[in-house]
Amino acid sequence: MNAMQYKITLPNDYDMRIIRQRITDNGHKTDHFPGLLFKAYLIIDTPTKKEYAPFYIWNDAKGMNQFIFEGFYDNILASFGWQHIAVAVPLHIERSAMFAQAAYVLEIEHPIQPAEHMTAPDFSLEAEDCLGKVLVYNPDKWRYVEFYFFAQAPEDFTDSGTVYELLHLSE
């Protein structure tokens, strides 16, 4: 399995209706994409921050490679230019039967500290209303990232990390 995400920071005066319409028009194109476990179309749309940050979990590298190198990622390049794709290894993936009802995602980033004995990172929050959660790590960067999926905005956890609006979930 592989995880990937690119975060496209947009100007604060950017009309996010353009991104919303892009997802409405094209989000379905990754529904049932070969090798894709899921893709979460994430945005931040506040007066001080505008971001488009799709998050993918791939069952295998074949589907990810097809997406990147066989024309699909070209749409991102044409619209937003060259983007860094962060790649990570999924460590934990938990999805409830209501996972598809998620409308918000909380992302929490952590460093992995040097140690003499490695222990796997674990989730840091107990969120009972969470519909799913994913923990990925990148040993190249020595960091791990938690993603929590919610039906309602996670007001109790806004100080814990970055809250995204989830506009479409491809499975």
Keywords:
single chain; 171 residues; alpha+beta; Alpha-Beta Plaits; eight-stranded antiparallel β-barrel; 3 helices; 10 strands; 15% helix; 41% strand; globular; DUF4865 domain-containing protein
Describe the structure.
The protein is an alpha+beta fold and 171 residues long. The protein has helices at 17-26, 61-69, 74-80; strands spanning 2-5, 8-10, 36-46, 49-52, 55-58, 86-95, 104-111, 130-138, 143-150, 162-170. It is 15% helix and 41% strand. An eight-stranded antiparallel barrel has the order 1-5-3-10-7-9-8-6. The longest helix has 10 residues, at 17-26.
Order of helices and strands: EEHEEEHHEEEEE
Overall pLDDT metric? 97
Q: What number of structural domains do the residues give?
A: 1
Gyration radius over CA: 16 Å
Oligomer class: single chain
Low-confidence stretches: none
The fold-level CATH name is Alpha-Beta Plaits
Report the CATH architecture.
2-Layer Sandwich
Q: Pairing-aware structural class of the strands and helices?
A: alpha+beta
Give the DSSP E fraction (strand runs of 2 or more residues): 35-45%
CATH class: Alpha Beta
Number of strands: 10
Helix-residue proportion: 10-25%
How do you describe this structure in short?
With 171 residues, this protein is an alpha+beta fold.
